[in-house]
Amino acid sequence: MDLALTEEQKVRKQEFYDTCKELEKKKPASLLSMETVFELDDCWEYHLHCAKEFAKKGWLALGWPPEYDGKGDMMDKVLFAEARGYYDIPGVDIFGVQMLAPTLLQAASEEIKKEFLPPIARGEVMWCELWSEPNAGSDLASLSTTAIKKGDEYIINGQKTWNTAAHRADWGFGVFKTDPEARKHHNITFILLDMKTPGITIRPIPYLDGHTPYCEVYFDDVHVPAKNIVGQEHEGWAVVNLLAGFERSGINEIMSMFHGLEDLVKFCNKTKRHGQLLAKDPLIRNRLAELACELQAARALAYRVADLQNRNEMSLMDAAAGKIFFSELGERFAFLATDILGPYGQVKTSRWAPLGGLWEKMYHDHFVTSISMGTNEIQRNIIAWYGLGLPRMR
Amino acid sequence: MDLRYTETQEILKKMARDFLTAECPKALVRKLEQSEEGYSPEVWRKMAELGWMGLIIPEEYGGMGYSFQDLIVLLEEIGRNILPGPLIATITSTFIVLEAGTEEQKKELLPKIAQGELILTTALLESEGVFDASGITLKATPKGDDFVIDGTKLFAEMAHVANYIICVTRTKDSTSADKGITLFIIDSKTPGISCEVMPTTAADKLCEVRFNNVTVPKKNIIGKIDEGWPIVEMMLRKGAITKCAESLGAVENCVEMTVAYSKERVQYERPIGAFQALQHKMADMWTAMETSRYLVYEAAWMESEGIPCAKETSMAKAYVNEAYKDTAKWAVRLHGGIATSDEHDIPFYYRRGKAADIAFGDTDFHREIVAQKIGLA
To answer: Nearest CB to A325: which of B2, B287, B315?
Structure first.
């Protein structure tokens, strides 16, 4: 067992951290989470700016093979995510860079790879995911939006929902029912489509804090070139499973929490209540220490997941455990931090809000990680069924 | 980065599992818990033949010269199977001899420890039951070339069968509690020493050790006079990781036994493991195991590499303490009534979870260290 980084890795890690630290100087104060990136214009502009900066260095193609202008390896990708997480720097399209690109590399035709990978690496095209439907959430395979082939096109009709950033994205990847007669899991095709295509209507959904990171997307006779598919026609379920396995370590979110903890400690070291520093309150010390231990455990498991991914030995169980753990840690952290802030824990970004209003925001945003990408309850099923070999629900 | 076991570690792990399965079945564990000695001299001798007591002792002193990380692999298996006896007490006391002993002390003690000829323990806690230096009040007073030790130690594991007791004493009163601490290695047969086993949750033979004006030669000091506390901190740090490794193995066993039982036990015409209420609990137990695992491995790797790891160790110990107790509790709950019987094997783990929590510093003790290390004023 060896947890050490090589000398080259240490150098690259430093470069990732230095670059992110530099980019942080221009970060809008309103950028508190990825959700704000999708919502606020100045945050979105900053996201695009960071993407261009990273693209110049080739960092949006980390771990890609050299023939697609890839650079570095999977470990570099993890170290890069760590640095971005620590400084909360956007610029890496979750959907395009983290999910779609590795999926294309493994499952798409040469033609599709050549067409879609370079714009992702250049940070030019931003993507969204078109998966969930009003009646197909955790049970995604029961989706009903159809893409019926007619000549060299698919014609899409139906509705998708919970589409993060659909109102910002240039392109979307989604799964659609292409063979209404075939049995479940063999009737779905993975399709790439331009979000400006006529017939698409996007309606933002108000999130529980009044923000709008998500959308509903309606399809009314939307024509998409039939060549824009990934994997085999009707066998999109395999692509869904493939995609779900990428970038699951959560290191980005975990490092963001590390930074959040550091800032909270500084706050406790300078804020007095009852005539003494919050840092001297034994209860606060104990609770923050408990959280720090859990955070360290989350990071240790994230490295485990990354280590497995690096050697192509992805364990669904470990990825599921990591996702459950870091997302629920995010919930506990938001509750703890807003407790410590006292009445200020309820103040939104404003001159009254400590720490920029981050924790008031996190009190709402933690649901994004526990519910999306397969709810934590589905993750527990994955551990139970595929890992522990317990009987599947019928 | 490579989080896998080395080939040597895989061999060590398999050897340990095979040995313990054959030599330390639960019937023996049950018998030893009820016995006076609390260990089997016969199994102890066989363990010595395998080199376990000398695993981390350098070859020049008759040991195996393995790394601290390798020791962690062995202890994980021991925790998994359960092995009552003085192994951890001896190994953690050996850390003190290795790090602070004079060449003479090392040459005298280490080969015998490696051979399984000596059992060691460290007597640290006193009546206050705290793990910091403020709890050390037992006095060692100079008298000619000797010191006279007078007072009582508590919770000294396996002291009743130990050949040597490393006693943490106060030799000087100081404004700072961690100054004026001196360690002595004392032959347990020295006149004035008496031992009594305390009845405990895990029946793990924690002892009260009374020192009634015990005369100990100055040469029996380990480390420097009045400057012994950093040695204790080192022992607590390494001891905490070894205990974590043992706990991790125990958690693994709790998870495996519970999952296996839930596949066999039928209620409402199906195995209880088919119910999601139980599945999700088992998924959480498994997650607690995996998060514990890499936290422990991280601390163990750092310790093995000589990287300062007081923070990481305390994080691991505070986390694993709770993970073990909770997993063992759920193991009992998911087994149902049957695991509340003393005849079942799960209660061994539930009871030992509490003992493991306390050994080398409980959760709150380690959380306070973490609080300091993350920069709280």
So the answer is: B287
